[in-house]
Amino acid sequence: EESGPTPFRAAGMMDPFEPPQSVRAVETTDTFEPRAAGSPGGLARAAVPPPIAPPRGLAGLFDDWDANEILDTSKFSPSQVYVNVYDLGDSDALKRINAVSTANNNVLIGGLFHAGVEVHGLEWCYGCTEEDRSGVSAIQPRTHPQHTYRTTVPMGVTPLGVEEVKLLCARLAEEWRGNEDQL
Questions:
Q1: SS3 per-residue string spanning 23-48
Q2: What is the residue-level pLDDT of the chain in tens, covering all 183 positions?
Q3: DSSP state of 177
Q4: For 12, how many CA atoms within 13 A lie in the half-sphere containing its CB?
Q5: CA nearest 137: which of 122, 151, 157, 154?
Q6: What is the spatial distance between Cα 156 and Cα 153, in angstroms, rounded to a whole number?
Q7: How far apart are CA 116 and CA 155, in angstroms?
C-alpha cells in the first residue's frame, strides 16, 4: 500500500531505504552497485570494498602503518558515522598528487579528495549535476563510481536513528542542488 511520495521522491531521488519492488529481499552480506539518484531499478549487485583503516596522523610517518589494513568496524557502535575518502576521479596524475601531499599515503593532511558520509549502512554524498536536481545521493559504502576509494575515517556516533537520518538527508536533498556545485 502506497502512502504517497516520500521526501526523497519529492526531491527527485530514489528512496534508498525502500528498495524497488523488483529487488528481492537481501541479506546483510549482499553487495550493491550504485546507480544515479532517481534512476529506475534501484541498487544492483557489485563488489563493495572493505573499509581501509586511515593513516595514524603524524605518527604514521614513523610507525609501521599498513596502507591496506582493514578497519574492524565490528568494534564500533551501529550508530557510528564514518567518512569514506576517495581520490578525486580515477586519473594517475591525481593519485600521484595525493601520494605526495599525504607523505606517500602516510598522513591524511592534504590533496584532492571526494568524501562521503556513511551512517546506518548507506553513504551520503554531494556532487555536480547538469540538470536542476538534487546533488545529494545515497550509495552503498565505498562504491562511488566516479572516484577511487582510499580510506575510511571513524568520526563518532550519531544520536539520530535511521528515520531521523532519512528525514535530514531528504531535507538536504531538496536544498543542495547539483547544478550549483562550485568545484
A1: CCCCCCCCCCECCCCCCCCCCECCCC
A2: 344 445 555 544 555 544 433 322 323 333 333 344 334 444 444 588 999 998 876 655 566 667 788 999 999 999 999 999 999 988 899 888 988 888 777 777 788 999 999 999 999 999 988 899 999 999 999 999 999 999 999 999 999 999 999 999 999 999 999 998 776
A3: B
A4: 15
A5: 122
A6: 9
A7: 12
